[in-house]
Amino acid sequence: MQPVPSSIIKTYEARGPLQQFRFQEATAFDCFRCSSSKKSKLITIYLGDWDKRLCNGCYGRLLSIYDIKSGTGADEDRIDQLAETLRALVDESAIKRQEELLLAKDTRLAKLTPEAIRFLATSEKLSERLGDDPDLEWSPAVIGLCKAVEVEIVRRIIIPLAKQAAGASLGEDVNDKDIGRVAKFCSRPDGKPPEIGVFSHFLQTTIHSQSRRENSPLIRAFLSLLADWPGSNWLLEPSGLHKSLVTLTSKFRNRAAHIDELDKSDYEACRDLVAGENGMVWRLILASQSVGKKGK
Fold it and tell me: Out of the domains of life, which is the source (predicted)?
């Protein structure tokens, strides 16, 4: 017997952690997500917990996240969709206030791109309203952290690499299965920049392939670029940026894009990796500074 003063006349197929029931009479309840009071014959519960009832609006938002995560689209498409969902989940004025708060707490933030700051602020604001338990909305929050790293890599490494490689003959590199997508962007930098998983593989190839270091115009341009960056050893160490990217993608980004339900501890671990005291975004700033330059 369900703890509601009516009888179930229809049970709908569960959609991940979401389960809908239709009752004989309309029943009042408080949405556990937005705290609004509703009365309806159709009630959704979350994770099988009747204390976690959802209004239609919150059900729709959570269902859209579940549909993205359980879909058959390419990982990058799902990640982009979750990033768009993140933007829709937090009010614009709340994002702005969170940006100001984060900038006041850590002055290093001012050295990041506005887009990276926005991703960090939006993820943090969303995290404040979620509980400790597994929740679909932790996924877009984690994706926001990953996107902050991605936009910093594009700005600090990939776009400068495209400029460094301008005029080089990249035809063979474009057809190279390990570095081709980075080479394609560098040959036509008006296209979509490579994602962090693609750049991670490029970095792995650069670190471990001596033959490509000697023969690839793109990798030679990359190494030439790094020669002007005193802190660039972190970019070429196996235990440096590449290891951090592998952790970011395997433990957080890929799980967020698939059916796994993340929780607060996942978000906090990802946030520490990305923007903690010694986080990836701060290491990227130091690693990509040219001789005699500080900050941006």
Answer: Bacteria
Q: For residue 29, list its beta bridge partners.
A: 38
Q: Are the beta carbons of 232 and 258 closer than 8 angstroms?
A: no
Which amino acid type is present at position 259?
A: I
Q: Report the distance separating Cα 194 and Cα 186, nearest Å.
A: 10
What is 263-294 written as a DSSP string?
-HHHHHHHHHHHHSTT-HHHHHHHHTPPTT--
Dihedral in degrees, nearest 10, Cα atoms 270, 275, 279, 284: 120
CB atoms within 10 A of CB 172: 14
Residue 115, φ and ψ in degrees, nearest 5: -65, -40
The whole-model pTM stands at 0.89
Question: Distance (Å, rounded) from C-alpha 19 to C-alpha 8?
Answer: 13
For 124, residues 6+ apart whose C-beta sits below 8 A from its C-beta are 98, 102, 271
Best CA proximity match to 36, nearest among 22, 63, 54, 51:
54
Summarised one tens digit per residue, pLDDT across range 189-237 is 889 999 999 999 999 999 999 999 999 999 999 999 999 999 999 999 9
273-289 pLDDT tens trace = 999 999 999 999 999 99
Pure H helices in the chain: 56-70, 75-89, 92-105, 114-128, 138-153, 159-164, 171-174, 180-187, 196-208, 210-215, 217-226, 233-236, 241-247, 254-257, 264-275, 280-287
CA distance 242 to 194: 15
